[in-house]
Amino acid sequence: MNKIKSAVKNLLVFSLLVTALSFAVDYWRRPNAPENALQQTLLALNGESVQLAKLSKEKPVLLYFWGSWCSICSLTSPSIASLANDGVQCLVSVALKSGNDQAVQDYLQQHQYDFLTVNDPQGTLSAQWHIQVTPSIIIIKNGKIVHTTTGLSSPWGLKLRLWLS
Questions:
Q1: Which position has the higher pLDDT, 163 or 107?
Q2: Would you state the pLDDT for residue 19?
Q3: Taking the domains of the chain in order of start, what are their residue ranges?
Q4: Tens digits of residue pLDDT in 32-49
Q5: Which end of the chain, N or C, is surrounded by fewer C-beta atoms within 10 Å?
Q6: Which residue intervals define the domain Thioredoxin in the entry (predicted)?
Q7: Residue 135 pLDDT exceeds 60
Q8: What are the DSSP calls for the chain, one per residue?
């Protein structure tokens, strides 16, 4: 019985350390929105105009910076697609240095990703946001950034972050 208690205690301490480390790394690598970035109008590949501040007044917006060349993005993008398929309507992705519009559309179609995407072929938008790591996920609510995370994310983790915001 003492071995079980000790194992549970060690597991709890380990989990808390991993969680604290994860938050610290996310804080260090967090993107910074430039002034008035949330009011900026972005043009999606489908021709739709997107303004993050306006969208985030209705419900939280998940902003996803990714690249077709990014191996971790290839693991995270299915989670993003799952959210889009589950009806998370305020989801905007930014394809960072992934080619011209046609190349990004082909990539999205090939992987059957049906999320709203803004192309950033030169990385200009991503540089303005100080994106250091892909994937980077930002949650915006009522015109303010309320949460950021980088790296691999699961659908459950993303749903929890959206729910908490």
A1: 107
A2: 60
A3: 1-30, 41-164
A4: 666 677 888 999 999 999
A5: N
A6: 31-165
A7: yes
A8: -HHHHHHHHHHHHHHHHHHHHHHHHHHHH---PPTTTTTSEEE-TTS-EEEHHHHHHHS-EEEEEE-TT-HHHHHHHHHHHHHHHTT---EEEEEES--SHHHHHHHHHHTT--SEEEEETTSHHHHHTT--SSSEEEEEETTEEEEEEES---HHHHHHHHHH-
Cα–Cα dist 130/119, whole Å:
16
Q: Which two tokens stand for residue 6?
A: 């000790």
Query: Distance between CA 81 and CA 3 in Å, rounded?
Result: 43
**C-alpha to C-alpha distance for 123 and 31, rounded to whole angstroms:** 14
Tens-place pLDDT, residues 144-165: 888 888 888 777 777 777 776 6
Instruction: Please name the residue that has the structure tokens 């290839």.
Output: 74
Token pair of 41, please? 């109008």
* CATH number listed for the domain at residues 41-164: 3.40.30.10
Using only the alpha carbons of the chain, give its radius of gyration. Answer: 17
Residue 15 — pLDDT band, cuts 50, 70, 90? Answer: low
